[in-house]
Amino acid sequence: MANTATHDHAHDAHDHKPQGLKRWLYATNHKDIGTMYLVFACVLFFLGGAMALVIRLELFQPGLQFVDPGFFNSMTTMHALLMIFGAVMPAWTGLANWMVPMQVGAPDMALPRLNNFSFWLLPFAFTLLLLTLFVPGGAPAGGWTLYPPLSLQAGDSFPLTIFAIHLMGISSILGAINVVVTIMNMRAPGMGLLNMPLFCWTWLITAYLLIAVMPVLAGAVTMLLTDHFFGTAFFTAAGGGDPVMFQHIFWFFGHPEVYILILPAFGVVSEIIPTFSRKPLFGYESMVYATASIAFLSFIVWAHHMFTVGMPLAGQLFFMLSTMLIAVPTGVKVFNWCATMWKGSISFETPMLFALAFLFLFTLGGFSGLMLAIVPADFQYHDSYFVVAHFHYVLVPGAVFAIMAGVYYWLPKWSGKMYDERIGKLHFWLSTIGVNVLFFPQHFLGLAGMPRRIPDYSTQFADWNMVSSIGAFIFGFSQLLFVYVVWSAVRKGAPAPQRPWEGAHGLEWELPTPAPYHSWETPPSREVVTKGVMH
Amino acid sequence: MTRNIRTALGSLALLAVAALAPAARAEWSNINMTEGVTPLSRDIHALHMTIFWWCVAIGVFVFGWMIWSLVKFRKSQGAKPDVTMVHSTKAEIIWTVIPVFILVLMAIPATRTLIAIEDTRGTELSIKVTGYQWKWHYEYLGQDVKFFSTLARSSDEARQLQSGIDPKSVPDYLLDVDNPLVVPEDTKVRVLLTAQDVIHAWWVPAFGMKKDAIPGNVNELWFKVDKGKTGIYRGQCAELCGRDHGFMPVVVKVVTKAEYAQWLAQQKAPAAPAAAEAAPTDTATDAMPPVAAAAPAAPAG
Amino acid sequence: MANAHATDHPADKYYVPHESPWPIYGSATLFVFMIGLCGWLNEWYGPWIFAIGTLMLIGLFVGWFAVVINEHQKGMYNMQVDRSFRMGMLWFIFSEVMFFAAFFGALFYARQLSVPWAGGEGVKIFNSLLLWKDYSAGWPTNGPMALGPRDDGSFETIPAFGLPAINTAILLLSGVTLTIAHHAIKEGNRRILNIFLGVTILLGFIFVGVQSWEYIHAYRDLGLQLSTGIYGSTFFMLTGFHGLHVTLGAIMLLVVWFRTMKGHFTPQRHFGFEAVAWYWHFVDVVWLGLFVFVYWV
Ligand code: HEA
Ligand code: HEA
Ligand code: CUA
Ligand SMILES: [Cu+2]
Fold it and tell me: Is B217 in Cβ contact with C131 (below 8 Å)?
């Protein structure tokens, strides 16, 4: 069955690569768009990280040395919004753009122009958001969770924040639709759903989550907007509304959102660990079902963020038990990864190192998550640094490490060049040591009673805050190495072979290196597909 | 080059160890939850430690398994992969069922404690607590005693941006107030929480309790301090409530029943409450958008 | 055709569009549009920027759709592309469903939980003892402080079996006429198609008209406004977003109508028509939910 990609210029179908600025502004190619997503994510990671460093600088010692408390709160809020919506989510979409067509044997994403639209919404959305730093009243300072009535006290930044979130939401929804359609409609002949690489599977499920919950966030912030400007009373008790109602709607989005950040990470790790263990992934199907169960459960656990709002006992019990259940499918994944390494033949290149750190440190963050799920204990943990420690463990050595692992893993295929393994390893060790020095002491701080979102603290918390801040600077500045490694690889790396990793399987490795501009102009033959999917 | 990296890593590890030096002089209360001074806080602490040890146990198993594999099956040691090992229904059932079982074991004490927490019967004293930006208002229901509680002056001066005052020289920096809440020991005290402007949360770690104070809603929590545990207990507002969220501590003075009766009588003497009842909100109100105006005012009664 | 298995590619070509200025133009448009809205709300120079944004937005739809329609007419899309469009549209509609779900969620939460709680139900007994002493919770309500335009805090609601019931009939009927039109397109019966599509559009606009009339009535005579507590908020936000969707749907139908006049669709290939028809049915179903939960029970 022949199937070729064509263009308007019907006859120059060969690597017709547009040149100059237009190539990027008007892009329809999944690789170009993927690159733009990744570069954008990297820039926002540094911006969000710079804000985190402002936070850690102020918290280096007790007393207010550098910033006003209001500005501190803006930094916390903006840091979280930038990291979640500007760094991690676009990075995942960027990886999906690069890898999904290559892994399912398609020439491109299903809806290429929509794809570019999804991307270009982001710079505009974040321009809106970053503009708030310069308007009267300052940037939003009510936390990334935007709880009313506090968030309604913002100045001119208020509508900018809301509309920025709307734009990000549209971008994510359209991006997710594209992934779903590509996976459901563009697979090469012979590639069944249960032959797909796990990265495609986890992204498919992530995309469903996105389509289901981003609109809910849009609704929630729209209600904030009308409460602020048009006198509605959704979140005002005097009018029969309820501030807690916002929290329910927000977390109905917010909890699935955290799995949106982590499920693709599960996918990447499920590709890397088998490769460097030189062994097929253990329990492929149970991995798929576990991912689906996590996604399903994520819709019915949201109120575990709100145990202290005064829910009736039955509600608290329900949300405690459903939350605890998530440990089961997540455990299945962890055990499957362990079993994959068991009796393998393991080597430790940089992608594998990051994947292993993910495995250890994500599990650690999962344990603290489980502790948070226990309602009576959460009455103590809630809104303390224990929570901050929990979610940074799952987000930084969780999501962010997995993104970096993915970049190291696929960079040779993208660029045709090898990165410098020694600098990669140095980056890994600095990051791993730094991240633990940064976040581990925050468990102690929380248990000792330090609330989160405070610019200054009483002196008993001084020691561990100082340690944490030192870790932050080690970790933060080490990330410059990452940029350097990638940049120097693309610039002057040694040429990479078609299959740079001995144990790598998947259709992407059947393509030449670097991957051609239109990945699979003709769908791979069934033999190639069978060879590629081998698991 | 490799040596340079080694040296770099080595010095970094040293730095990391040096950074961990505080551990050496850390007190236990600086790194873990304390038992507190109420039956509930002890239950919660016990629960916390139980789950913690379960997690440690699971961690030892999982991390042990990982490290074992990483050491034993290294390619550099000539390990050959067993590519036929792709699936085992038996193993998968085991590692689904055992975690469920462990979770049930955790859920039982958790549920028991939770039910105890929600049991508000037999309250002996009710205090209405209202959160303001950024102070607490305490009202002893049925006693006509009420007052505001704000950050102590000494802390307030030191916490100004670049104040030049060393926080370490300020007693109970950020954890001290002008008028603490006074409660008797060995008494079931019910706290009724609400707020005037935005959401706050009232938290005293030693009582094991934290609850949100939400405008237009009343939440309940209770505590009963053990007999003999008189003293001063400190906590903080635990829900982001704006610029000075970090500066509205909660201080509770627990006294004997006799001292409490005496204190209460004193408060009821005509002069005292008037002085404590300052203007409700000075800085807060003028920055507020229309919605806050629609929020409920603290009822006078 | 559409239900064919995802892997059986037709033997023809897959279309990868070349570079296009529309996406980035579209992003810039939304940016201008939203800056305009922000400016309006913050009392900067909003209305002007907003007006420019709106014009750009119209340009966006006209321009981008023109390209797609044109490519479609030139036969550049094979069945696989067609299927991509269909799936894309369905998932887009699903995301819209979830957007409405947020507002329905707010409605149910208020009716079932927060309003009774404000009245001191269950564990929330202290709400009525300490805060809202003589509030008797019930639905409809504008809250313990009886927010709203009238001094005495009263307001009236619109009974379900008046205009809303008529509007329900109108919208349901429009669903039927659209289905007839759909059958007609499949049978290649152009005359029936044009007539019934036209009727559908007409019914759509009548619906919007009736709804506007109802709004004016509510604002002027009933004391029912956006600011009438939680009832006013949920009422206007739900019906308002729905009305907006009907308007958009009707405009899209209008475009499709012009396209059928120009003979754009074939009995086998009419994705543009079907997409809009799905959209219309979705709007229909949302209305049923509104009629039952906002007006009736
Ligand atoms: C990537 C993001 C991510 C992930 C994956 C998770 C995963 C989990 N989270 Fe976390 N969480 C956040 C991001 C994330 N979280 C964020 C951002 C917040 C704060 C938001 C804010 O307030 O700003 C938060 C807050 C948060 C809270 C609210 C705390 C509070 O505010 O009081 C709770 C409470 O239940 C919670 C629980 C959990 C649980 C149970 C999991 C589980 O999924 C973890 C499951 C994993 C494991 C348990 C480990 C592996 C399992 C095994 C080895 C099997 C055997 C184990 C057992 C039987 C125990 N999280
Ligand atoms: C994916 C999400 C993500 C990521 C990656 C991070 C990464 C980091 N986070 Fe963040 N964080 C959140 C999500 C995330 N965080 C969320 C959701 C909150 C809650 C917010 C709220 O309460 O509302 C939060 C809150 C939060 C707090 C609590 C603030 C408070 O409660 O007041 C702290 C404090 O230490 C912190 C620190 C850090 C640090 C040090 C990093 C580091 O990993 C960052 C690494 C640093 C860099 C990468 C910087 C590199 C910069 C340079 C080298 C300088 C050069 C600069 C330029 C070129 C511009 N974060
Ligand atoms: Cu009050 Cu935070
Ligand atoms: Cu959660």
Answer: yes
Based on the residue annotation, tell me whether A144 is a catalytic residue of this protein: yes
Do C259 and C175 share a structural domain? Answer: yes
Residue C76 pLDDT: 77
Percent of chain A with pLDDT over 70: 97
Which CATH number belongs to the domain containing residue A376 in this structure?
A: 1.20.210.10
Boundaries of domain holding A203: 36-532
| Same domain? C41 vs C157 | no
DSSP assignment string, B177-239: BSS-EEEETTS-EEEEEEESSS-EEEEEGGGTEEEEE-BT--EEEEE-PPTT--EEEEEEE-S
The answer to whether residues A97 and A109 touch, using CB atoms and an 8 Å cutoff, is: yes
Q: Is the CB of A304 under 6 A from ligand 1?
A: yes
Q: Is C8 exposed, middle or buried (0-12, 13-18, 19+ CB in 10 A)?
A: exposed
When pLDDT is cut at 50, 70 and 90, the band that residue A513 belongs to is confident
Residue A488 covered by a domain: yes
Residue A12 placed within a domain: no
Chain-wide mean pLDDT for chain A? 92
C17 & C157 share domain: no
Same domain, C38 and C132: no
Is the pLDDT at B284 greater than 50? The verdict is no
And the tokens for B102? 């462990």
Place of tokens 């991912």: A291
Kindly state whether residues C173 and C278 are assigned to the same domain: yes
* Domains identified in chain A, total number: 1
CA gap C146, A317 in Å, rounded: 34
Tell me if A18 and C18 make a contact (CB, 8 A cut-off): yes
Question: Range of C10's domain?
Answer: 1-77
Is residue A166 annotated as a catalytic residue, yes or no?
A: no
Q: Is A200 on the interface with C (CB under 8 A)?
A: no
Q: How far is the CA of A69 from the centre of ligand 3 (A)?
A: 13
Question: Does residue A223 sit at the C interface (CB-CB below 8 Å)?
Answer: yes
| CATH code at position C21 | 1.10.287.70
Q: Where is pLDDT greater, at B164 or A457? A: A457
d(CA A479, CA A495): 24
CA A520/CA A497 separation, integer angstroms? 19
Pick the more confident residue, B136 or B9. Answer: B136
Query: What integer is the mean pLDDT of A128-147?
Result: 94
- Shortest distance, CA A525 to any CA of chain B (angstroms): 25
In a domain, A29, yes or no: no
Strands B200-204 and B231-237 turn out to be antiparallel
Are residues C65 and C189 part of one domain?
no
Does ipTM surpass 0.85 in this model? yes
Total-model pTM: 0.93
Q: Per the residue annotation, which of A31, A333, A417, A443 is the catalytic one? A: A333
The count of structural domains within chain C is 2
Is pLDDT above 50 for B207?
A: yes
